[in-house]
């Protein structure tokens, strides 16, 4: 029993369209309301621009666009999850950030090859929590090497 507690991880659950996604807490620095985003020319269409977050210029990715979903207007519920991956800080625009849940590592199943138009390359796995299905985001893939170069360029600008 003590062993199952040992392999539990905290996950921040957020919404995109009507689905729930999660990202591990250790990859999240903060959750912010959407502030003024400065557009940076000649970047991928899913990169909204940059924000000045407490003196740090942080690139912002529209996660809906990155996952090939239709765009949505920013509302009072919209949040920016400031995530850190490989020492790189980036903001992810999500429809809302719901809560923090504990999941056990052995409850994570591999992602099926197709999940309703969302490319599974960005999904690390799926976990069931009561009647909820939470797709765990693979931050490394969302911020692939090719995109890291674009984002790093933005941080230099």
TrEMBL record:
Keyword Cytoplasm: yes or no? yes
Task: Please tell me whether the keyword Cytoplasm is annotated for this protein.
Answer: yes
SMART domains (alphabetical):
CheW
List GO terms (cellular component aspect). Answer: cytosol
Q: Which residues form the CheW-like domain?
A: 8-148
Q: What are the UniProt keywords, alphabetically?
A: Chemotaxis, Cytoplasm
Q: Which subcellular locations apply to this protein? A: Cytoplasm
Checking SUPFAM superfamilies in the record gives: CheW-like (SSF50341)
Task: Indicate the principal place this protein occupies in or around the cell.
Answer: cytoplasm
Protein name (record): Chemotaxis protein CheW
| Species this protein is from | Aeribacillus pallidus
Q: What is the lineage of its organism?
A: Bacteria, Bacillati, Bacillota, Bacilli, Bacillales
């Amino acid at each position: 029993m003590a062993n199952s507690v040992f392999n539990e991880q905290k996950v921040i659950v957020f919404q995109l369209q009507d689905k729930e996604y999660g990202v591990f807490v250790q990859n999240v620095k903060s959750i912010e309301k959407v502030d003024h985003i400065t557009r940076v020319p000649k970047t991928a269409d899913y990169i909204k621009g940059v924000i000045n977050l407490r003196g740090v210029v942080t690139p912002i990715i529209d996660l809906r666009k990155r996952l090939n979903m239709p765009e949505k207007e920013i509302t009072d519920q919209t949040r920016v999850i400031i995530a850190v991956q490989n020492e790189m800080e980036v903001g992810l625009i999500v429809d809302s950030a719901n809560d923090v849940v504990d999941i056990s590592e052995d409850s994570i199943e591999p992602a099926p090859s197709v999940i309703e138009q969302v490319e599974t390359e960005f999904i690390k796995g799926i976990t069931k929590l009561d009647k909820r299905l939470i797709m765990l985001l693979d931050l490394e893939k969302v911020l692939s090497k090719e995109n890291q170069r674009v984002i790093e360029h933005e941080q230099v600008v």
